[in-house]
UniProtKB/TrEMBL annotation:
This is Substrate-binding domain-containing protein. GO terms for molecular function: DNA-binding transcription factor activity; transcription cis-regulatory region binding. Keywords: DNA-binding, Transcription, Transcription regulation. Residues 65-166 form the Transcriptional regulator LacI/GalR-like sensor domain. InterPro entries: LacI/GalR-like_sensor (IPR046335), Peripla_BP_I (IPR028082). It comes from the Bacteria.
Length: 171
């Protein structure tokens, strides 16, 4: 369906598919999504643990990672809806004595500065906020110059930033 207003968003389908492909290459085949929503690669059911309505912080990630360990036997990767959830998940896995990435790999979303400095450093999906802002400004400028034009939707590509939390070394 056509949007009712101009929309600029990161390509979330690409984000999940990029994470899944990367995990497969790294030898992980039982991922669990920590976050809301039914995101999955076409043809693949992706197990999900919802941290709770609007709960996207580290404490939620800590709890969700521990739930994933008990509710999803054999889980070997966590795809987290935010870097904050992922950083909490790293702590939750550490508290449970789980080696990252040896037993469970972790991918976040957002490319926060903290992701570079966590132990292990966090692999993340970068939503390219600069491109999101440029596209939003372009749509806003076009809306001011042509107020009656049809609403437009722009999907901005994301990129994987590979770090230690998904490395192959320990598998």
């Amino acid at each position: 369906t056509e949007p009712a207003v101009d929309v600029v968003r990161a390509d979330l389908d690409q984000a999940v598919n990029t994470a899944l492909r990367h995990l497969r290459v790294m030898g992980h085949h039982r991922p669990v999504l920590l976050g809301p929503g039914p995101l999955a690669e076409p043809g693949q059911a992706l197990a999900r643990i919802d941290p709770g309505p609007g709960d996207i912080g580290r404490a939620a990630g800590f709890r969700a990672a521990q739930r994933a360990l008990t509710e999803q036997p054999g889980v070997d990767a966590l795809i987290c809806g935010t870097d904050e959830i992922a950083l909490g998940a790293l702590a939750g896995l550490h508290a449970a004595g789980v080696d990252v990435p040896g037993r469970v790999a972790v991918i976040g979303y957002g490319n926060l500065d903290d992701a570079r400095f966590s132990t292990p450093s966090l692999t993340t999906i970068d939503p390219d906020p600069i491109s999101l802002a440029h596209n939003a400004i372009d749509l806003l400028t076009a809306r001011f110059s042509q107020p009656g034009r049809a609403p437009e939707s722009v999907s901005v590509p994301v990129t994987l930033v590979q770090r230690e939390s998904t490395s192959k070394g320990a598998r």
